Amino acid sequence: MDNADNNSYPTLDQITMTRGRVPENTAKHAIQVQDLGVVLTDTVILDSLSLEISQGQWVAIVGPSGCGKSTLLRTIAGLTSPSTGVITWGQPSAPRSPLAFVFQDSTLLPWRTVYDNIRLPLELSDGRHSAQQTTVKEKVKEKIQLVGLSQHDMNKFPRMLSGGMKMRVSLARALITNPAVLLLDEPFAALDEILRQQLNEDLLRIWATSRTTTVMVTHNVAEAIFLAERILVMGGQGQLLADVTVPFTYPRQRALRTTLQFAEVNQQISEILFAQSRTDTGK
What we know:
Blueprint: E1 17-18, E2 29-40, E3 43-54, E4 58-62, H1 69-77, E5 84-89, E6 99-102, H2 114-124, H3 133-146, H4 163-175, E7 181-185, H5 193-210, E8 213-217, H6 221-227, E9 230-234, E10 240-245, H7 260-281
Parallel strand pairs: 4-8, 4-9, 6-7, 7-8
Antiparallel strand pairs: 1-10, 2-3, 2-5, 9-10
């Protein structure tokens, strides 16, 4: 996008949005969630949630704290067991590891160098990624370059890295196995706004090289709009309030954030969240 004021952007009333259950998608699915329910310590976190995510799609999930966003992501990843419902995985067109998960904290092992942290998934794999050390080193170098780190960073320990660099290492570790699905749980929440936007742009650049199916949880509506092509807006107990199709094409440049159309989509989603907040307060 060379011109941030491009008049080809759609107006607010042209933005596609559905409320409630996500409609069937005719594209090949990477993930299907059917009537998912999660109950933890007698508390209903998710209740009869259904959605479909197509292969290669970038989906963001937004909603208030406690609405079940992270629980949904963890359940998709198999880190939390569903109480009811079914999660079905599509078959990727090429052999790839099923998924990778990036947490809000970088979760780097402090006694391992950047190189050793990134290659850890290859060590833990069941043989699918067995390779000579020279091959592993080349894979690590490739991912370090991809996430915007220097080869000189390979021998550093996590204590020597800034917060942004730690998240880049965490992302490189997630990508080392070439996953079919990338799950991101608020990975940039602890970063300042400028660094967050820089990492948003880097993440889009990385995604454009592989079109990996990506599902990201965030509290930041502007971040969701800038990155995703679909935004799922959640309310209490995992209620799906809206499924918003983001009207901007890729690649997306920083100037997009300053456009009127971007502000309109932001207002649309924020109003849904404000309305839900008022409803919850009135209960």
